[in-house]
Design goal:
20% strand; alpha/beta; Rossmann fold
Length: 158
């Protein structure tokens, strides 16, 4: 079974860099066997090539929400694909939703997809996370590791 953990975001836009920050945090820890960890930055048309062929993919990214900055939200595959596509500024922008549609069509989509989102305080042009989002990074890392760690199948008690 292969699992990919991908940080997504632009470190030049404040809290949008939370995905890469969590990947850096996780890079110092041992990962379960079969887990790939990578900072994808701001992928576009190449996103499906990273996702294809894995059993499970966990994305980490900033997400828009009315919740307080640093709040962690976990989205299932169904919630991701149910979201209406946003307005594209460029044809080179490909969302997670778009990538999953392409991979479903090709028959190479992962079985499980999760987005671990963090509510940003600011995505203005600056380097560095806000204090609330920086404080959330270890909690996000723990949530991601819990999702990436294989769970034992229940044992038959018969």
């Amino acid at each position: 079974m292969s699992t990919a953990i991908y940080g997504i975001g632009n470190i030049l836009f404040g809290d949008d860099g939370v995905g890469p920050a969590v990947v850096r945090h996780l890079a110092s820890r041992p990962l379960p066997p079969g887990v790939v960890l990578e900072d994808l930055g701001t992928p576009s048309l190449d996103l499906p090539t990273y996702v294809a062929g894995h059993d499970t993919v966990i994305f980490i990214d900033a997400v828009a929400s009315d919740a307080s900055p640093g709040t962690i939200r976990v989205f299932s595959r169904d919630e991701i694909v149910a979201a209406a596509p946003g307005i594209r500024i460029s044809p080179h922008e490909l969302s997670i939703n778009d990538a999953l549609i392409v991979l479903d069509f090709a028959g190479t989509a992962p079985r499980d997809v999760v987005l671990v989102g963090v509510v940003p305080e600011t995505v203005d042009g600056r380097i560095g996370l806000s204090p609330a989002v920086a404080e959330a990074v270890p909690r996000v890392a723990e949530a991601v590791m819990a999702l990436a760690t294989p769970r034992e199948a229940p044992r038959d008690r018969g």
